Amino acid sequence: MRIGEIAALVGVTSRAVRHYHHIGLLPEPARRANGYRAYTVRDAVLLARIRRLTEIGLSLDEVRDVLADDAGRELVEVLGELDADLARQEREIRERRRVLAALLEAPLTSEGPLSPGLAALLEGAPVTGSPAAAKDREHLVLLDAAGGGAGAEVYAALRPLAEDPGVLELYGRLDELAGAGADDPRIAPLAADLADAVPDDVLAVIPQGEPAATGVGRALLDDYPPAQREVVRRVMETLAERVRGRTS
Questions:
Q1: Mean pLDDT for each 10-residue chunk of the chain (248 residues)?
Q2: Which residues contact 82 (CB under 8 A, 6 or more apart)?
């Protein structure tokens, strides 16, 4: 194979192949009498392994270390590993297409595309000018688009709560804390009321864990001003405790 052929086979550019040669990551193959490089199957296997390792986030120096550890392995073993990796990629592509199909079936909005579950949840929510409600909506859309949303079961369980006009009063109280400090006396009663408003059937389908402790949880909390952040943090902790109480 010539350089363009091996690059196309593995799914990289010829420029990338030359770069790997330049830094010593991919050994130079033998050359034909006309000066062209002649790549073998083993070269293609090694190049594919480099591509895979870089795709999962390894630096080129880290890739070099991995390849050094793999030196001397049988070709059939490496080929089998690459075949398993291709099978994994096929499964991931099928899952992405399934999610895409669901998104295409959902109503398209200025926020979308949204998953069908979230689209139905937001569609039934009462109209409000509450900034806190708008922020909640933004967070749900972000998590949904990133694939870290609550899921169809949670969205369905949340619909009665989202459609309850009484929730607007809670959002109004949260809005009133926009300029307050983290020691405001209104924080504790509002956090308790918000946590109490979450029905038990939602707790039955939400994942276990400490959402405020995750990177995403911290980022969402940091999007709030101090008093509101403390309210949301307390609500998240209370719900996590309730989930643990149901499963213990």
A1: 90 93 92 89 87 82 80 65 79 80 60 70 82 86 61 75 85 95 96 89 64 62 91 90 74
A2: 45, 48, 49, 52
